[in-house]
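ok trying again, last paste got cut off:
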Amino acid sequence: MEINYVSAFVFAFIATCGFGFIIQVPFKAIPTSGIIGAIGWVVFVYISKGFGHSTVYANFTATVVVAVLSELFARLMKQPVNVYVIPGVIPLVPGLGMYNGMTKILSRHFEYGMSILMQACSDAGAIAMGMMLVTSIFRMIKISKEQKSIAELLKRQK
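nice, full thing came through this time. structure:
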């Protein structure tokens, strides 16, 4: 089956912008957050469908891409990172997996439902790990810059 990356980008862009509008992201940041979310979704689809890797690996990689772009655009546009990262990960959230897992459990297919729920929880964990990794790296860079500037101020005062 051929993957249409353009339609994947467009629909993820619309979904991300719509969610950004719902959670009241500043209007000037909505298109940028939509592009970030769409890029993340295309990366996810490319890795999971194009290469055939697991959804956990695809979610982690796509979240790292979304988080890096969000950090960069937050600094470029002088906005908080959450304005970009929260709407940006929305296309990656395994909501359908959670729904399907619960539906199977309620229809008394316990093992299959738990299997789906475990996969969805693994995907959610991969998203959290990707965001945490990038945020930690950017925070370490910021702290090291602040420490250097403090050291320079102390040298000047002596």
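cool. The CA atoms of residues 5 and 46 lie 8 Å apart. DSSP finds six helices and no strands in the chain.
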